[in-house]
Amino acid sequence: MLVILKRDSHEIYEQAAQLIASAIKKKPALTLGLATGSTMVGVYEHLVRLHKTSSVDFSQVVTFNLDEYLGLSASHPQSFHYFMHENFFRHTNVQPENIHIPDGSIRGNYDQYCASYEQAIRAAGGIDLQLLGIGRNGHIGFNEPTSSLASRTRLKVLSRETLHDNAKFFGPREESPVCAITMGIGTILEARTILLLATGDSKATAVAKSIEGPVSSAVSASALQLHPDVTFLLDEPAASQLTQRDYYQRVLQMTVLLTPDRLS
Ligand code: GLP
Asked: Please, what is the average pLDDT of the chain?
């Protein structure tokens, strides 16, 4: 596990975009796992900029989003479909047929639908690089606390904390979704490389538990300790509860020295 500490969120967005861009340069037909949330907006901004300056070409990239709210159509402004198109896809040359986002408008046959999403990931050769944010409660995707660490794509009931965090995005008379379709923790752990971004002090507890706490279904992101190639990109506030920051800095220095490919 590599923990990269940056001064502020802008450096994180830039570095994440650079890592994604260089992965695409190495493998133009990269299968990219994508995430939503405010943390990702800056990453997509940088990626769009890199695309517009011809530094990155998405024409062969295949994307799979982590999750989507159940009950929201693709045109709903709070849907992750809408988020992805507004913040990323419509500004790039990702081919529409290469975009996969769980369909939040399905009614019934959920298991069958989720199995078909897993099958599509397998058919694409598996996810090469998975981008992740983290919830205040340590969730990744919408794998809420107590999610099985072996879980696959499925329907998930949102936790009280997540419902509270989401309420501000929906109008006063609008009911916010109570369920989502999300890749499972087992699905995420099969990605070859994982990049998790966290900014701000509201994420500090979840980040510390994920990196330094025990592996536990109570903190979904702690399952990333089981993965051989994970990078955490953190700003100062998000890293503030970590106890071994100087060690992570030394690991990073040695990584730059000995295995610079890991970071390019
Ligand atoms: C939602 C998404 C997660 C994301 C989280 C954090 O819950 N399902 O994938 O990591 O939001 O969002 P933000 O970056 O806005 O804090």
From this structure: 96
Give me the helix-helix angle, 80-87 and 38-52, nearest 10°: 30
Determine whether 100 is an active site residue: no
Confirm whether 139 is a catalytic residue: yes
Nearest CA to ligand 1 atom 12: 37
pLDDT at 66 over 90: yes
Report residues whose beta carbon is within 6 angstroms of any ligand 1 atom: 35-39, 66-67, 133-135, 141-142, 162
Residue with tokens 């966290």: 198
Can you say how many angstroms the Cα of residue 63 is from the centroid of all Cα atoms in its chain?
A: 12
pLDDT tens sequence across 13-48 = 999 999 999 999 999 999 999 999 999 999 999 999
How many Å apart are CA 72 and CA 106, to the nearest integer? 9
Closest residue CA from atom 9 of ligand 1:
141
pTM exceeds 0.85 for this model: yes
Q: How many angstroms does the Cα of residue 46 sit away from the middle of ligand 1?
A: 19
